[in-house]
Amino acid sequence: MSATDSSPVVMAFESVSFGFGEGPLLQDISFELRRGETLVIQGAAASGKTLLLKLSLGLLRPTGGRIRLFGREVQELDERDWYDVRSRIGVLFQEGGLFDSLTIEENVAYPLLNQRLLRVPLEQVRDRVERSLDFVELGHTLARFPSELSGGMRRRVGIARAIVTQPELMIYDSPTAGLDPITANTIMALIAKGRDVRGATTVMVTHRHQDGDILDRYRFDAASGRLAPAARESTRTRYLVLQEGRIAFLGSPDEFDNCPDAYVAKFASR
Amino acid sequence: MLDLLKSPVQTFQEFTRLAGLAVRGIARKPYYWDDIFIQMDLIGIGSLPVVILTGFFSGAVMALQMSRALQTYGATSQVGKIVAITLVREMGPVLTALMVAGRNASGMASELGSMKVTEQIDAMRALGTDPVLKLVKPRLIATAFVLPLLTILADFLGLVGGYIVACQMLHLTQGPQYWESAWRAIEYNDIAQGLLKPFCFAIVLSLVGCYYGMQTTGGTQGVGRSTTQAVVVASVWVVVLTFIIGRIFTSM
After folding, report:
1. A97 and B129 in contact by Cβ < 8 A?
2. ipTM value of the model?
3. Treating both helix axes as pointing N-terminal to C-terminal, what angle do B175-185 and B79-86 enclose, rounded to 10 degrees?
4. Which domain-ending residue is among A149, A165, A181?
5. What does the alpha-carbon distance between residue A102 and residue A107 come to, in Å, rounded to a whole number?
6. Residue A1: pLDDT above 60?
7. For residue A173, what pLDDT is reported?
């Protein structure tokens, strides 16, 4: 974030591009994210936001540039090695990505039972699943199926599944898309709580400027159990705005709010 | 011209890549036995009614259609032989495979397609599971195991259908003679061909269903499109493959 920040770099993109032929879908993307920082990614539809997240999860391979995760260069890794890297990342997909043939308990337990590096003993799985579901206040839904839950509840289960392995890096793809404002704020409060309780590095794609505001202006207060206003620097949040596959803006919340660029200004909360 | 070829070449390349990964995956852990047995149940037990009906009536129709020609030549005693050879070599494997293509290749494409558009396949990869091992491999193993068994059943029921028409309805020949001529007509070569075909069809059916499912884009409309493509491509491949395998066996 600042030049003096000595925290280790968790994620770094160096001149990353994706796509061939007429108009690459992402071009010359470069940024660094240090431990404990929050990066809020905004941009118009089809500007490459979700693509950027998929590249950082190894679900797609870049066609140019380098990506480093946890100090390891990953763009050439094969799928098996990617599983080791992904075991350190928690992800919430836009649609939740819950497996609809599994119960909520099985969904949340899935990474604990399937991540090769974690190897969580079976007797601990239930306890960790319950704790994770309690964190999102859905401890009573263990035996239910995703189709029986509302959109907001499914998103919360997605968060529970993402945090159950206690990952160092959290990635959220449009966590509030399609939700009513009250449910959206509940989801954002959970994301801020996850970040501040565990100190996880957070990357979030969003369409709503209010989502970024919550992450850069509030911190979770463990004493009161609620979000409390905080100095913007203390949340170590930065904004990245994409425009047609290129970075239109990358900077602090104050710079973001005062950016004179008309495109960037559309996403800022003024 | 090159632009026209780009899409089919790319499809073939990606299909070959998936097929390679799935076949290589057979030797690789983990084995999701639950999924394999669930798929065997879905494909095997689930397809029983349609395979029983198709097998029975294909044999019955064959005996019916052959009756006039055989009567012309006074060769009605050969009806068992004709029904047996046609069923075991061609009709049994092809009709069973077409039924399973319509029922299960479409099911695989729509199930995996729905998972793809709701990001469940991405989630699976992100949560430490290889979708090829978890989704494609069990379907491939289950179909390759079950389709030859379904074909044997269809062949047998076709012979029964032929027997009922030839012996009970049209009285073309006596029962023992029908079964005797059917039994004598089938050679080892026919049995090999009749079992190799469903095995090859099973590999193609399951991989085509999974491939189109995993390539789905464009929401629920995309799922419908993938399902249709899977059935059409799998059915065409069944017909093409039966010719290729038949040609190899006839030249041996």
Report:
1. no
2. 0.86
3. 40
4. A165
5. 6
6. no
7. 92
